[in-house]
Amino acid sequence: MERPKYPHPDYYKTHARRDAERKWISVIALIIGVGLLFLKFYAYQKTNSQSIFSDALESIINVVAGIITLIVIVVAAKPADQDHPYGHGKVESMAASFEGGAITLAGLLIILKAVEAFYSGTILKELNLGLLITLGAGLANGIMGYFIALRGKVLHSEALRSSGTHLMTDAFTSLGVIVSLFLVKWTGLHWIDPIIAVTFGFALCLSGAKIFIRSGYVLMDGLDQETLKNIAELFEKNYRPGVIDIHYTRVIRSGNFHHIDCHMVIPEFWSIAEGHSFSEHFEARFVNNYSTQAELKIHLDPCRRVYCENCEVGDCPIRQKNFVKRTPLDNLDEVTSPIESR
Fold this sequence. Notes:
Elements: H1 11-47, H2 50-76, H3 90-120, H4 127-154, H5 158-187, H6 192-219, H7 225-237, E1 245-254, E2 257-266, H8 272-289, E3 293-302, H9 332-336
Parallel strand pairs: 2-3
Antiparallel strand pairs: 1-2
Helix pairs in contact: 1-2, 1-4, 2-3, 2-5, 2-6, 3-5, 3-6, 4-5, 5-6
């Protein structure tokens, strides 16, 4: 059995393009973020609105997070070395944890500032200008956040996903600011503004906590149903007679690099050389078709003559029952079970 080329000739080119895309997305997001930051603080200076101030304060977090995201994406793209055998991708989850904490802190500061403004009293001015700037900034953040989160998911970048989620939250904050300014303009009640700002503060705290918890889950290699489902489907796609059962599949996610290991049941009459060659062939096909950079390590188990009815291997010298039906490999419960199905 001739082993397919691994990595495939286009493997490194494909992932180099993806690394470059991650960097360019980070650079563009940072440039736009800096522009929106100055625009929002200009709007705050003109209007004296606590809602706009809360939006502007969040933009500071956007810019800081953008700088960190760019740095960690460059670091995460470094190949594995002797000190980091699984690569440097975990730094993305570390950055996402920082961003989640920073967003939560910004939410708390907004709440404190808004409460102070509520009791001291503030008078808003130039509301039309504030509305116009906030609307433009909200649209920019919403479009950019959706794009970054979408590409982050496709590119398996935890840093980009967190950044995109944060920007979309910022867009909803801007929408709330618009509602707040309209209410103040319509009713003339200036105390509405800090009340709305407090609401934004709580929303930011919630958003930051979600990002922090998710990034911590990834750092601890928590179970990812979507990733495991894709792996199981790819197991089935690459099935060949001889793969009798696959179980105890686990994944270590390190940024856009995934280390996958599993147990595979093969015919017990195969020699060590045959089993080794077969598993290497399977690993190569799997990795060449996987959605991101990965390695697959297979532990081989003998069939122990209990899978005869599910085994398609012909000319088996130890077969005790005729083949009836093969068990598909895309059953998530069986693929992840720590024990064999039999």
